[in-house]
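Now for today's protein.

===
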Amino acid sequence: MDGGRPEKHSAAPANESRLAASFAHEINNPLQSLINLLHLMAEEETLTDEVRHYLTPAREEAGRISQIAHAAMNGFGNAAGREEANVPEILDSVLRFYRSRFESQGILVTAHYCCPDGNLSVYVSALRQMFSNLLLNAADAMPNGGKIHTKISKAHEWTGQQRRGLRVTFGDDGCGIATDDLQKILEPFFTTKGASGNGIGLSLVRDTVQQHDGALRVRSSTKVGRSGTIFSIFLPAGDPKRLSRLSRAA
């Protein structure tokens, strides 16, 4: 978390993977029933426009949970394989999905994409879920509203091999993370949210960064008037040809 590359032991321990897969299996059966019920509700002609307005995101969120469950059962998303995708477009789709929710919470989200060619070979579903987790985590830190800043730019890795790739940044002006907790927030099942948290979201962020052989840096402050948190994620351009293009463009 100090900005260096993940250590080689960074892959999720086997017992954590088995535990996650077990939870996912138990969750998936009732979840499929819920998805089917939501689908049947959507076909009802008597629904008002207001109900349909809330039903659509409910179905989409249930679908996302299903994707997470299947990803856990298949090894945290590796089964789907990497594919060439535009990282800014993935983040933008997640921002669009949550826009109305954040607006209702008094949260302003800004996005800056500094690279016209933001394509990388990535695990798309895992990356989308990572972005969702970071945005929702930031929103939880701002119960009275605030600002979230997102940015994607060409970058060098902070240390190690000095690889080139993309840096994805999420910053908020929320309550911040206590110093003692900073060393624990990426651990599975650690949460500062009490009964409302499960401690899985940020550990999945860690796992997704590791899947992509990337690096993660977290900075935070709890000082009054200067509080907030910044997550910076480096995603390497593993394709040598793409590495060369990014190098010439930087």
In short: The chain has seven helices and seven strands.
